[in-house]
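Friendly challenge for the regulars: who can give me the structure tokens for this chain first? No prize, just bragging rights.
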Amino acid sequence: MKITFVGHGYVGLVSASIFADLGNDVTVIGHTPQTVENLNKGIVHIYEPGLTELVEKNINAGRLRFTLDYDSVKNAEIVFTGVGTPPKESGEADLSTVLEVAESIGKNLSGYTVVVTKSTVPIGTNKKIKALIEKVKDDKAEFDVASCPEFLRQGSAISDTLYPDRIVIGSENKRAEDLLVELHKPLQKNSDCPYVLCNLETAEMIKYAANSFLAMKISFANSIAQLSEATGADALRALEGIGFDKRIGSSFLQPGPGYGGSCFPKDVKALISIAGDYGYDFKLLKEVEAVNHSAKRLVVEKAEKLLKTIDGKKIGILGLAFKPNTDDMRFAPSIEIIEWLQAKGAEITAFDPQSMEKAKQIITGIKYVDDIYSTAVDADVVIVLTDWNEFKEIDFDKLKSVMKNPAVIDSRNIYDPKKVEDNGFVYVGVGR
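First reply, four minutes later:
Bragging rights claimed.
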């Protein structure tokens, strides 16, 4: 099929590359000249394992190209939009880019086209997109709108796209539904996953509900961790114990410094806002947000308890990205944690294997270094904020030799406390 994607972020670039690799003819429309130029050369601007190789392969095969204009919409059977919907101050999703893109698509439609929203948008948005396109399209052009939310995880986005848990297709028209089912057949066969065929509003709801539920599991895990520390229970064993229950499952039941990234924070806020628009006070999700905030604050409180005072102390930070295997800094817990530590007078040195260039644009006033051990030079404590594999098997003797005070706050519980303590460190975990 001839497919156009609008947006070359995590969702657009990964999805476009996968569909090109499946043999489709794919054009990606971007808005930044330098990024588009680089992508046509195979230079990828985001870190995602395997993505650069996938992009290069399909550019060389002639199945994938990048452009700034909307000409490809005229010949496309399907046009996907995968642009950002960041939160406003109120928490509601900012749809300005989504609607601008819809208008540009509408003005370039020719023949019959299915316009599919992959962006996470509030319930009712696709109906607005349909009305907007109706106003601006050529009279001869035919189209349907559809919603196909993505469920990829950064760091495993290619695998998640190739082997989905489910394929959600929201539409109002059988013709559009059939075309999208056909497009997704190779992915459905990969994992023998179910299709969820539904109306537009249900597809829009599924994405918000899924992310909010997973965020709730993380906040639940952090609540159990706080209670475990108070009572002497081992949160990791307790959560493992409930995770064996098939009705619950073990995924996202790991305590830590709170959730971050491009989805959970904004989608929880957006669903709270959507609920408010319909007169429902979503108290449960408000508490999920509150617990997430406290999980980040607790890292700072643990440092303060350990060091007696943070003022004037040197603190090494291992990990800045919101999770491993990505360079994404959006809503990363490290941002607020470092800001709070700085406000209390700490001198911060930090290292992350992939995200430091992006972090430098967000977190100022700290020293960035090129390896694990440089973060620990003369440090009073090292704090692990991202569970990169590189951090899991460090040489504690070497770490200790450069530190002023051998102490580790392991906010991801990646170390064996006994092993760390046997190396002469003070160890502080989460829920332990």
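The chain has two domains: 2-198, 199-432. The mean pLDDT is 97. Your move, everyone else.
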